[in-house]
Amino acid sequence: MSKKPSLSTALRGLETRDTAPAVSPTPEAETGGGGGKTALPPSRQGKKTIAGHFDPAVSRQLRALGLEHDRTVQDLLSEALNGLFEKYGKPPIA
User: Fold this and answer.
1) Cα separation of 78 and 94, whole Å?
2) SS (H, E, C) the chain
């Protein structure tokens, strides 16, 4: 059984290899175009995600309310946020 080369020997071997990428980057990648994000649908452009961590039962109950009242979770959350804003004297903008 042969002995494995030391880590420093293996790393020296990597330094001598050609490190050029196999595929040249696209001009968009070089300029950072897109920032790695996919295009947003028009309904989400100019919007900001607001999230929280809750017990799974909260998620189930919210979805059940949506089914019972034929409304989306987004719509129910908008209603809840507007109620919260009004409670604290702010205009309902959600």
Assistant:
1) 5
2) CCCCCCHHHHHHHHHHCCCCCCCCCCHHHHHCCCCCCCCCCHHHCCCCCCCCCCCHHHHHHHHHHHHHCCCCHHHHHHHHHHHHHHHCCCCCCC
User: pTM of this prediction?
Assistant: 0.58
Residue pointed to by tokens 């452009």? 45
H/E run at residue 80: helix 73-87
Which two tokens mark 51? 């999230």
Per-residue pLDDT of 19-39, as tens digits, reads: 555 555 555 444 445 556 788
What is the C-alpha to C-alpha distance for residues 26 and 54, in angstroms, rounded to an integer? 42
